Amino acid sequence: MYLSPSFFDEYTIISTDKNILEIKSLTSNTTIKIDYFLCKKGDSNRDCKQLSSTFADSSEKTFTTQYGTTFYKLSEVSSWFFANQDLFGYFINNVPEQEVTKLSSYLILPSSEYIKTMIQPKVSTLCKAGNIVMNEVKKTTLFIDQGKPAVTFAGTWEK
């Protein structure tokens, strides 16, 4: 997860303990804990694709951010779930809905959609090797490398 540049105009980070990001709203004084985990296919508690599918069918409410991340309000509890594909899953518990909605606009989760719209157009300035530049992306792969999101680009290069 990345934080937009304007995040710190509204929030401060209190703690980044293992698998928990704790932040505080500067305007409402609300403390928010975001519990996160590495997705694991086949694990009923950590299979993000399956969790997203389950929550899509049973959630009380959903909304999608400008970067394509869908937030699911779990029924009958004050918890929200969101994920960036099969990389990481996130839960926010016991936080008012308006605060979750506001916070969501500051969270950037690497996803295929984010890579396509925000990173890929800049590939010619990002992917250089001496005087050779990647000029066209034919394939992108988003994956976890040493516990962090990473992306590879395959494409054509020119001098």
Walk me through the structure.
- The chain has 159 residues and is α+β, with helices and mostly antiparallel strands.
- It folds into two domains: 2-108, Protein Transport Mog1p, Chain A, CATH 3.40.1000; 112-158, no CATH class.
- Helices cover 22% and strands 44% of the residues.
- The chain has five helices and twelve strands.
- The chain has a seven-stranded antiparallel beta sheet, with helices on both faces. Strands 10-11-12 form a three-stranded antiparallel beta sheet.
- The mean pLDDT is 90.
Key traits:
single chain, 44% strand, 22% helix, 2 domains, alpha+beta, 5 helices, Protein Transport Mog1p, Chain A, three-stranded antiparallel beta sheet
Helix-strand blueprint:
Layout: E1 2-3, H1 7-10, E2 11-15, E3 20-25, E4 31-38, H2 48-58, E5 61-64, E6 70-73, E7 79-84, E8 88-93, H3 97-104, E9 107-108, H4 112-119, H5 123-126, E10 128-129, E11 132-145, E12 148-158
Strand content: 35-45%
Q: What value does the average pLDDT take? A: 90
- CATH fold-level name of the largest domain: Protein Transport Mog1p, Chain A
Rg over CA atoms: 17 Å
What structural class should be given to the helix and strand makeup? alpha+beta
Total tally of structural domains: 2
- The second-level CATH architecture of the largest domain is 3-Layer(aba) Sandwich
Number of helices: 5
Number of strands: 12
Distance between the termini: 34 Å
Instruction: Give the strand order of the largest sheet, numbering strands 1, 2, ... along the chain.
Output: 2-3-4-8-7-6-5
User: Which stretches of 5+ consecutive residues score pLDDT under 50?
Assistant: none
CATH class of the largest domain: Alpha Beta
Largest beta-sheet characterization: 7 strands, antiparallel
- Global morphology: globular
Order of helices and strands: EHEEEHEEEEHEHHEEE
Helix content: 10-25%
